[in-house]
Here is the input.
Amino acid sequence: MLHLYNTLSRQTEPFTPLRDNQVRMYACGPTVYARAHIGNFRTFICIDVLRRTLKYLGGYQMRQAVNYTDVDDKTIGGAERAGMPLREYTEQWIQAFREDNDALGIETPEETPRATDEANMTAMGDLVRQLEQNGHTYRSEGSVYFRIASFESYGRLARVVQDGIQAGARVDVDEYSKEDARDFVLWKAAKPGEPTWDPGVGPGRPGWHLECSAMALRLLGAPLDIHAGGIDLIFPHHENEIAQSEGATGGPFARFWVHVEHLFVEGEKMSKSVGNVYTLPELIEKGYRPSALRYLLLSSHYRKQLNFTWAGMEQAEESLRRLADFSARLGAVTVAGRHEGVQASIATARTRFAEAMQDDLNTAAALAAVFDLVRDVNSALDAREAGSEDAVAAQEALVACDQVLGVLALRQAEDATPPVPVDEIERLIGERQAARRQRDFAEADRIRVELQDRGILLEDGPSGTRWKRR
Ligand code: AMP
Ligand code: ZN
Here is the structure.
């Protein structure tokens, strides 16, 4: 059984879904005003690994929602600077996010709502009105605020005492019309030049926290089995989501809260404000593959900080190459046979893998189990103590583990589509050979370096030049 660390209880607890065999999971999605950076993708990849663990190891059916925050100060500001309507402006970043998700092998959630979808705006209006009825709000200068003092258990998730709450980075400190510095805005009064909606609460736009509560309640219903996000969202975002949702429904909002630690670069959190961000296209430009980034980002435990380094990327590339070579080697075994020792190694690896993943997604230990299998089967093959039945069983185990991790199949798909079209590679190899025949070694070298920069390595051998992916 899966055991998950629950931020709410600060304990690792056994997980089963509340209803039937279905897991209802909500994860806070990207704010779509720029291309998501690889720090953001650490969170989304770890949540994808959680999803795959529930689905493929747990056997549960998934009902997952990941939203697009497509209305807030950043998106409105970006659209204004670009001179574009808000929805059109955010659409391009949504497309970019989807492209990166696909490249990184992130499964598409069942629901990907945009905050500005009409049904969601209506749900936000309904939520605000319900909170008003329940006495949790007040109005000031056209905005609606949540009165924290009206919600007794405020601070339970983040473990902050009400009185000690500081006006922090993501608390709306600039709103002087609030009665209390800790209160947060549910609905912001319309401002000239800003997009405006009115789902029955007065003209304006939603606060960020309201968007998530409304979408989660509308699409999945309370209590959610799991609510997930990056660790910076615990306070105030998730605390406020709880206050709004529970203040409106009177019941619990989410049973499990899962938070992913940050990706760092040289000791600093990767974030746009620090300016140390990389995006997936930038990594591809440098010759790395999305599968290697996925591998790197899931290879250490999701509750530990992870430091991004280029050496780490190289190691990830190398580890994946070993896995892909192993899989190819298994596919080439023709000698019939079955060996109990190999079969036992395979069974052990499968058990260890499952146990590691069920232990709060211990991906590092799960990968160690996979690499022990690689080592054992490789040495059996070297010693001619493994046959085709063993190879098939090992391949099946590899595929089963990879359903959860999602790295090897991604790598193999990348291998099947090289970064430079095969025709072009062959034409350039031909041109290089012609240059060499004319003793124009500078030109021959230029072609080799050009291909190398584009991710293709050339190897000259007795039977001519062969190419492979970097
Ligand atoms: P945002 O687009 O800023 O709303 O963030 C999208 C998701 O990425 C949220 O769950 C954040 O908590 C998460 N996130 C932001 N920065 C990092 C980072 N450096 N490492 C891991 N996750 C992050
Ligand atoms: Zn959220």
Notes: The radius of gyration is 26 Å. Residues 47 and 232 are 15 Å apart (CA to CA). The chain has 15 helices and 15 strands.
